[in-house]
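User: Show me a protein chain along with its predicted structure.
Assistant: Here is one chain, sequence first, then C-alpha cells.
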Amino acid sequence: MSKILKFKKYIVVVSAIITSLLFGGCGAMNKFSGEVPTDQLQVHFISVGQGDSELIKLPTGENVLIDSGDTFAAETLLNYLKNNGVETIDLAVATHPHSDHIGSMQSVMENFEVKKILRPDCDYDSLVYTDFLYSIEENGVEEIIPKPGDTFDVGDAHFEVLGPVKEYEDVNNASIVLMMTYGETKFLFTGDQQADAEADIISMGYDLSANVLKVGHHGSDTSTSGEFIEAVRPEIAVIEVGEGNSYSLPSDGVVMNLARRGATVYRTDQSGNIIITSDGKKLGVFTDDTLESFSDYLFGVS
C-alpha cells in the first residue's frame, strides 16, 4: 500500500472516531473505578481473533453463549469462560455454519454442560460443521431450530428470534438474528447477516430499535446498510474483528456510517474484550484497556 493510500485510510479512520465523539448518542462518558458489577447483566464480546463470540451472564447465574470463534480460538475461549466462572451454559446459539462462528463450539460442549443449543436449518458441507452436529448428539444437548417469532427467557433476559425470515443460498444470510431485552435495554445480535437479509427483516415490520448492536459480518460493507442502521438506531455498536486481518475489516465506510448516525463504535481488534453491563436502565462499558461507564445516561429506546 502506498504512503498516500495509507494516509487517506488514516484520515478516514480518524474522521470516524471524531464523528463518533462529537455526534455519539451517549451522554456524559465518565470514568468508572472498580470491578465490573456482578449484580447486573453482563454481555461479553470476547476477543477471539477473526471471529465472533458473545457471552451473556445473568445476575441470577444463568449463561448464554452466542457463537464460539474459530477452531484456533478454542483455548482462548475456554479459558475466558472458566475465568469468568462459567460452569453451565443454559443456552448456546450457533448463528450459522461458518467456522469463525462455530469452530470452537464442539470444544465448549465437551468442556461445559450445555443445556440447549439453537442452530439454523441449513445445509453446509464442511468438516467443522459436521463435527459440530455430531457433537450435539454425542453430548446430549437439546437441539432447537428456531423460527422467526420464537421467544426464549433465560433468567430475566427475554430473547426473540427475528431471522432468518426465509431460505438463502448464502449461509451468512441464514444467521440466527436475536433481540435480547433486559429491562428497558435492548441488544441486537446479527451474526453475519448481510444487507439483503437485513432488508427482509425490516420488511417484516419488527421494532428493531436497540441500544446495542453487534455489527454484522465483522463490519464488512456487505452488511449494516444505512437503512438497517436507521431502523436500529444503536447508541453503541460493537465490531468483532481480528487485528490485522487479511480482509481489511472493518470497512471504513461502515464505521463512519455508524458514527454519523450517533453510535459509539467499539472494536475487539482495538479494545480487546469488551463488556457491556445493564441494570435494566443504564449501560456501562468496560474494555481491556479502559474502564468507562455511561453511568449518567439513561439508554432508553427512543
